[in-house]
Amino acid sequence: MAKPILVVLAAGMGSRYHGLKQIDPMGKYGEKILDYSVYDARRAGFETIVFVMKPEMEQEFEESVGKRLRKYVEVRYAFQTIDHLPASFELPQGRTKPWGTAHALMCAAEQIDAPFAVINADDYYGPTGYQLLFDLLSRDEESCAMVSYPLCRTVTESGHVSRGICRVDGENCLQRVTERTWIELKEDGIAYSEDEGKNFCELDPNVPVSMNFWGFPKSFLKRVQDGFPKFLETALKENPIKAEYFLPSVVSDMIEQENVKVHVMESRDRWYGVTYQQDKPAVMQAFEQMSRQGLYPQPLWEEK
What we know:
By secondary structure, the protein is of the alpha/beta class. The chain has a domain at 5-146 and 210-242 and 266-292: Alpha-Beta Complex (Spore Coat Polysaccharide Biosynthesis Protein SpsA, Chain A), CATH 3.90.550. Helices cover 29% and strands 25% of the residues. It has helices at residues 33-44, 58-69, 101-107, 127-139, 220-238, 247-258, 280-292; strands spanning 5-9, 48-53, 74-79, 116-120, 123-124, 144-150, 161-168, 174-186, 189-192, 201-203, 208-216, 262-266, 272-273. The strands form 2 sheets. Strands 1, 2, 3, 4, 6, 7, 8, 9, 10, 11 and 12 form an 11-stranded mixed sheet that branches. A two-stranded antiparallel ribbon has the order 5-13. Helix 1 (33-44) crosses helix 4 (127-139) and helix 3 (101-107) crosses helix 5 (220-238). The two termini are 30 Å apart.
């Protein structure tokens, strides 16, 4: 049985953060959020990491991240480009935004040769989820799974965020993920908007959400590839500049159309992220506190 690998999605533009948050230092010794993620993944058993990025990031990423991590894990690079499209489609004029998380996996397909977990480079998930996914994919390489978090532990006071709102059945299997791209923390609770903040609908603060922390069999890559042309047919008519091919949408279609089971495993760890620059001090403080409590050494990586 092939050993599970970790895929790290690092091609996002970070427009609300105003910088490359994927490689912005957050730890006392210059550690990035993804350093802590790789550290947690490595101690769970992952030995191969695939980073998906924009081609123009490669040199800076290698100097600040890849060169160091190669001493501890096998590092592979894949590149997400907006012109990576089926032959029958053309890139819309004016499009600069990446096509989303599912498209990123398509671009990385040649580097993924085993069951795999998926994370965002700019999200801190805590160690528990990596162990849950590694153990599951190691004993059943055809399983699909998601690590969930309560919505209230994933919002920021700095502005709106995007989250996948999950419906889960009594057997802890995923029924549906609804992508909400504008969620805000309000004075009287948490709410989402479908018109960029003009009108809001209330959300349950404890509803499980997808933070793009998934586990998939290698065969999932074909499902993603097969669904992309159908997505483009609609996207190019309705929103050619900003439409994104989201992983949760692919998973939801797979559940509804093929009755595939996706296990939902809740992590008790605290999630941290940097959607905005204002989020950075709290994240840095959290890493310092976790290090003092013994969860992480300082510095995180000892030179070999």
